[in-house]
C-alpha cells in the first residue's frame, strides 16, 4: 500500500498538516508554550494574544508567520500533487487530510488548532474567488466585531454559500463533499468558542 503514490501523498498531507508551527515559533523565539496560556490553541490568534503581553512587535511577526506557514501546509502538498498530475479528487483528499492533520496532530496527542489558516491554503488553490469573498467577510468582521472566532466562522459561512452560488457543480469532482468535510472539522474545533459566544464570554482580539 505504501508504494501507491496516492497513499504516500495522503500520509504526507496529514503529517505535514500536523506540524504545529504556532507552537514551534512561540517556543523557539519567545520561549513560551502557548498551549498553557490564552485560549491554549496553537494558532496565530493565540500566538498574538499570548506574546503581545511581553513583546507586541514579536507577537505580530510570529502570528503572521504562523498564518503563512499553516496556510502553506495545506497548499504545498497539493501543488506538488498537481505538478505530478494526480487527479483533482486526489488533490481534494490531500487538502482535507492537511486540515485534519492540523486539527488532530499526532505530534500533540491528536490535539491541534482550529484549522482555519490551513483550510485557507487549501481552498485558495481550488476556489480563489470564493476565498476572496470569504477573506473580505473575515476582514470586515475582524474590523468591526473584533472576535476571532466570529470572523472565522462568518468567513467560513461566506465561503460555503458563495461556493454553491459560483460553482453549483464543483469543477472536476462535481461534489461539495470535500469542502463540507473541511467546514465540519473547522466548526467542530470551534465548539468551545461557540459555547463561549453563547455565554457572552468570548474575548475580543485587541
Automatic annotation (TrEMBL):
Its EC number is 2.3.1.275. Keywords: Cell membrane, Lipid biosynthesis, Lipid metabolism, Membrane, Phospholipid biosynthesis, Phospholipid metabolism, Transferase, Transmembrane, Transmembrane helix. Coiled coil: none annotated. It catalyses: an acyl phosphate + sn-glycerol 3-phosphate = a 1-acyl-sn-glycero-3-phosphate + phosphate. It is a multi-pass membrane protein. Its main location: membrane. Pfam families: G3P_acyltransf. It is found in: Cell membrane. Pathway: Lipid metabolism; phospholipid metabolism. The chain crosses the membrane at residues 6-26, 62-86, 92-110, 122-141, 147-166, 173-191. InterPro entries: G3P_acylTferase_PlsY (IPR003811). SMART domains: G3P_acyltransf (SM01207). Catalyzes the transfer of an acyl group from acyl-phosphate (acyl-PO(4)) to glycerol-3-phosphate (G3P) to form lysophosphatidic acid (LPA). This enzyme utilizes acyl-phosphate as fatty acyl donor, but not acyl-CoA or acyl-ACP. HAMAP family: PlsY. Probably interacts with PlsX. Belongs to the PlsY family. PANTHER family: GLYCEROL-3-PHOSPHATE ACYLTRANSFERASE-RELATED (PTHR30309:SF0), INNER MEMBRANE PROTEIN YGIH (PTHR30309). This is Glycerol-3-phosphate acyltransferase.
